[in-house]
Amino acid sequence: MSINLLAIESSCDDTSASVLIDGCIRSNVIASQKVHSKHGGVVPELAGRAHLKKIITVTEEALTRAMISKESVDAIAFTSGPGLIGSLMVGSSFAKSMALALKVPLISVDHMQAHVLSNFINDPKPSFPFLCLTVSGGHTQIVLVKDYLEMELIGETKDDAAGEAFDKTANLLKLPYPGGPMIDELARIGNPRAFEFPEPRVAGLHFSFSGLKTSIRYFLIENLNKNPNFIEESINDICASVQHRIVSILMRKLEKAARQYNIKEIAIAGGVSSNSGLRQAATELSEINGWTLHIPPVEYCTDNAAMIAMTAYYKFLAGDFETLSAVPSARIEWKSS
After folding, report:
1. Predicted local distance difference test score (pLDDT) of residue 256
2. How far apart are CA 283 and CA 129, in angstroms?
3. Lowest mean pLDDT among 174-178, 197-201, 310-314
4. How far is CA 245 from CA 141, 197, 238, 285, in A?
């Protein structure tokens, strides 16, 4: 029997819909919200309003590209969290209404678990068990993946996420939002050893980036006091040095986790996994340690409904459906080691 799934993603500021047919992604439509750029960050109320305007159009386009009608959909999936509660409510309410009208099952999907399973959209796919470093603007995690729907959080940030460190640094450097990709671009022509930033000491497999953010701030203040043109004259080297330190923190913990769990199947996921410095460092570390490395195409690294659809596919096969009374959550708790 053919399985046709429609998935909706609305956790933050990207409205996305995807159609999966028999385990294969047939369409993945993403509408980004430009309204936040002038504010230097996502404004939750504006994000919710933008989702309301775009969600029908995006869903219709996803169905059209996949060449199926809404009456052919066997189940509808939505992001249940974590994310902005207003944005999540738009997506979940739309999915519930559509599922009720079409009389099809509803599937709720954890956004972070979906990032992990984005590695199963294309070949080659990871083998179980594997470790996944999931890095985004709001989360930094190391996940032990035992099966499609069996995952254990073994390391996470205790304060700020790596993506936030990129964005806050970009803000200090007066770079346009979103700042992370801009830092990556400028870092490519900078010297990563030009400036030294501290690496926090955090027990186990956990992370911390708040101290690094503070050190970057005071570093800039000190040097601007000496030379008002410091940022303008050293922007490439600053970006390269900051990126080098963030990436080295991530790689050191990932390597420690791989040794601790004796696993050589490694995956990277989340919005920051599109960072060229992180991809290069992970590739080099994989060659040194004999890992098999998996990183999704950039299209599936940022927030997208294809990863929601892929996760929903395995939940559909397991008969794991949701009720119409389901309420999305801004934060979802994992089982942590």
Report:
1. 98
2. 19
3. 174-178
4. 17, 7, 11, 15
φ/ψ of 157, rounded to 5, equals: -75, 140
Output 45-51 pairs: Cβ under 8 A, ≥24 positions apart. Answer: 45/86, 47/12, 47/13, 47/84, 47/86, 47/87, 48/84, 48/86, 48/87, 48/89, 48/90, 50/13, 50/15, 51/10, 51/15, 51/87, 51/90, 51/91
Rounded distance, CA 115 to CA 306, Å?
Answer: 10
- What is the side-by-side strand order in the sheet with 14-21? 24-32, 14-21, 4-9, 75-81, 106-110
Fold observed for domain 4-116+300-317: Nucleotidyltransferase; domain 5 (3.30.420)
DSSP code, position 157 = B
Architecture of the structural domain at 125-295: 2-Layer Sandwich (3.30)
Q: In the chain, which residues fall in CATH 3.30.420.40?
A: 4-116+300-317, 125-295
> Can you state the angle between helices 276-289 and 230-261, rounded to 10 degrees?
30
Judged by average pLDDT, the poorest of 79-88, 96-105, 117-126, 233-242 is 79-88
206 close to 157: Cβ distance less than 8 angstroms:
yes
How far, in Å, CA of 42 to CA of 36, rounded?
A: 5
- Distance CA(214)–CA(210), nearest Å, equals 6
Q: What angle do CA 114, 116, 122 make, to 5 degrees?
A: 90
Q: Which helix (H) or strand (E) holds 300?
A: none
The three-state secondary structure class of 108 is strand
Residue 297, judged by CB atoms within 10 A of its CB (0-12, 13-18, 19+), counts as: exposed
Helix (H) or strand (E) holding 243, with range, is helix 230-261
Please state the φ and ψ torsions of residue 213, each to the nearest 5 degrees: -60, -40
Q: Which amino acid is residue 72, in one-letter code?
A: S
Q: What is the DSSP letter of 322?
A: B
Closest among 154, 95, 106, 109 to 129, alpha carbons compared: 154
- Distance, in Å, from the CA atom of 280 to the CA atom of 276, rounded to the nearest integer, reads 6
